[in-house]
Specification:
This protein is an alpha/beta fold. Its EC number is 2.3.1.39.
Length: 325
């Protein structure tokens, strides 16, 4: 069967951040793919629990940042490794670009093969620990605003700057996320309503990628600088958020600054489109990114992998439709 000319073998892989985690996430891979057991055995060893406990720790524990981040990172690392391996075995040559939303950056570093899982899992566990500690310092939250009016959102945030209210995420042309102290976010929502802009609180207990993460930044930066083994700068196949591109020369600063700097999925997808990507694969426990890509590039093909069944469907589609080089 002749293969169609789908984006000339270029695939944009998008890794989810924290938020869609759930109990037993990745267990189907662990039970059916013996070659990936290393990832989960390494994670269990780092957390000082058994592999059985990894998939049975309860929803409350899974939702704790300390556990959620390494669990999601491990799942995404497993899926991306299997994706590359299966496409290679099928003879399908692919040029990968990747972008990681928040925590997903670390999964991009694995896919890029610029850093080792055994090294990064330690880093991710510490990242989750410091971010969870920062979340407990005051009552904080985030909210999605359904608008493209950046100046208006920035102005509203400036009114509550003392409560550390700030833009955290540019997700799509139709959504901007803000974060800060809970009282400020709630006041901002009322103000947006008066301005005719819809908004809604997110089910989170932290204001990630805002100044309220400054203490996490300080602790994480000290930890990274104390490490004996230095991490590597990723290749240009990894799309980096605009707010942290100035730190590309120093990996420790890049990773620590990312905790408190805003993300820009919208710009990252456009950067991939400029590179010729027209097929996107979202990897993560849920599908938060796909709907944003649909808004950014309605004509692109968007696949998602959140379990073994969707992985198999994705592999089938790619092997049948990606043009060989």
């Amino acid at each position: 069967m002749k293969k169609s000319n789908i984006d000339k073998g270029k695939i944009g892989v998008l890794f989810d951040g924290q938020g869609g985690q759930h109990m037993a996430m990745g267990q189907d891979f662990f039970n059916n793919c013996p070659n990936i057991s290393y990832f989960y055995e390494t994670l269990a060893n780092k957390l000082k629990i058994s592999t059985e406990e990894l998939f049975n720790m309860g929803e409350e524990k899974v939702n704790e940042t300390y556990y959620a981040q390494p669990l999601i990172f491990t799942f995404e690392s497993v899926v991306s490794s299997c994706l590359k391996e299966d496409l290679s075995k099928s003879g399908t040559e692919v040029e990968f670009y990747s972008y990681g939303f928040s925590l997903g950056l670390y999964s991009s570093l694995i896919m890029d093969e610029s850093n080792d899982f055994n090294e990064l899992i330690d880093v991710v566990i510490h990242r989750g620990q410091y971010m969870e500690e920062a979340c407990k310092k005051c009552e904080q939250t985030m909210a999605a605003t359904f608008t493209s009016e950046v100046p208006i959102v920035e102005y509203v945030c400036s009114l509550f700057s003392k409560e550390e209210l700030a833009i955290a995420n540019f997700n799509s042309p139709k959504q901007i996320v803000i974060g800060g102290k809970k009282v400020a976010v709630e006041k901002a929502i009322k103000l947006f309503e008066c301005l005719g802009i819809k908004s809604s609180l997110l089910n989170v207990q932290g204001a990630f990628h805002t100044p309220l993460m400054n203490t996490a930044f300080d602790s994480f930066q000290r930890y990274l600088r104390s490490r004996t083994n230095k991490l590597n700068i990723p290749s240009d196949k990894v799309i980096i958020d605009e707010a942290i591109k100035d730190y590309m020369g120093e990996i420790n600063d890049l990773l620590s600054e990312q905790i408190r700097k805003r993300t820009n999925l919208n710009m990252a997808v456009h950067e991939m489109l400029e590179k010729g990507v027209r097929t996107f694969v979202e990897i993560g426990p849920s599908r938060p990114i796909s709907r944003f890509v649909e808004q950014i590039s309605p004509s692109s093909r968007i696949l998602s992998i959140n379990d073994l069944a969707s992985f198999n469907s994705c592999i089938k589609y790619l092997t049948e439709n990606i043009t060989e080089k």
